[in-house]
Amino acid sequence: MGLDQEHLSLESHNITAEEQNQTFKKVIFRIVPFIFIAYFLNIIDRINISFAKLRMAEDLLLSDAAYGIGTSIFFIGYLLFEIPSNMYMKRVGARATLTRIMLLWGILTILMSTVESTTSFYVFRFLIGVAEAGFVPGIILYLTYWFPGFLRGRVTSIFLMSALVAGIINGPLATWIMSTFDGWMGLRDWQALFVIEGVPAVILGVFTWFWLVDNPEQAKWLTVREKLIIKISLLSERVPVENEKSSLKQVFLDPRVHLMGLVFLCIYSGTNTITYWVPTLIREFGVQDLHQIGLISSLPYLFALIAMYFVCRSSDKHLERRWHLALTMAVGALSFMLLGFAQHDLTIFILLLTVGCGACFSAGTLFWTIPPTYLSVTAAALGIAWINVLGSLAAVISPAVVGAIKTQTGSIYLAFSVIGVLLVIGAITILLAIPARLLKEQKSINTL
């Protein structure tokens, strides 16, 4: 590892396109399935509250406003510990950090079955947020240790696709668990849901300790030459360390970093509202059967899964992020603004919600290809965490706002229109605030 960066190039070491291809395929097959499953379980445990709420609200006498506050409190805990978690990961490594996160969130999800009041609901939601803090930005940072820019869009999309697969599966799965296990071991349907869906996270947390390594140098399953290929591929797009500003200065004094946080806030407002309110929206159309609600709620995620793949593939192929992101956000904005006109037609409503869902989740994936290519190596851990904190404020604000609007007006379509406006603001911001010349991405010698 003592070679100077200027002497590290694929050509100088006679590294062929096929070698680079095979090396990164090996890394993909080792890391990507794991992070896919981990995020899948994370989303399952995060959004099962939206289905538990259909029965839980009756037992705990939760109003829509109280439910909205509860989902917001989750993100307060999440945000308070987001940056410390990511910075601590840089010190102790990804393996220890992700093991801790998964074990804690799994155990606390199981303990959600003991909630007996609105107050205890708030307490557990806060603690689960604390437990999950740092997971997504930690994975995003971890991917920068293994994948250069020409692969990061697709790899990030696969990682985030697991959220959509979870959305597709969790509806039918959650409603099946609630229907089948009501009364199991004396538990109500929603209590059984938390117990059954929390156990896999605990199991995977233990597995994480034995499966992950912190960086390519520690990977016994890579050869020396494969490690060199990864190192060269990563160095080709990084600014030399001696020319970098300190991480604190670059992150907190750079207005573009804060503006990226604003863009992510706009995107997250859309995805978060979809995640927590779709089952309730469907029930308002008169659909009362749990199985039907679960199946219908899966449709937007299924479309989003397909849309995300093709949008991100196009972005990687052209190494163009900004316009892909801006146009995707614009499509989502239009879909949400039109929802109010379809509130009496379930088919058109689901169609618009499906397109909006696909656009928002695709935008979320595209967005996370931008910060790692803008931030320097030393600023990446703090910068990614800070951007995620700023953006995730939407998760604190939007559920409470949506719940309050619905409680006061009986309708949430106005809230979706507001989210549409936010998406437009975000699209304009990314085009004006982040010039293409500032994104340090280079094409590879292969076409993996």
What do these coordinates show?
The chain is mostly helical. It is built from 17 helices and no strands. The protein has helices at residues 17-60, 64-80, 82-92, 94-111, 118-132, 135-144, 149-180, 189-211, 224-235, 247-252, 255-284, 290-318, 322-338, 346-367, 371-374, 380-409, 413-433. The two termini are 26 Å apart.
The helix/strand order is HHHHHHHHHHHHHHHHH
User: What structural category characterises the helix and strand content?
Assistant: mainly alpha
Question: How does the overall form come out from the CA principal axes?
Answer: globular
Gyration radius over CA? 22 Å
Classify the helix fraction into a percent range. Answer: over 70%
Q: What is the number of beta strands? A: 0
Residue stretches low in confidence (pLDDT < 50, at least 5 long) are: 1-7, 239-245, 442-447
Report the span from N to C terminus. Answer: 26 Å
**How much of the polypeptide forms β-strand, as a percent range?**
under 5%
User: Largest beta sheet, briefly?
Assistant: none
Residue-averaged pLDDT, rounded? 81
* Number of helical regions: 17
Q: Oligomeric status of the shown chains?
A: single chain
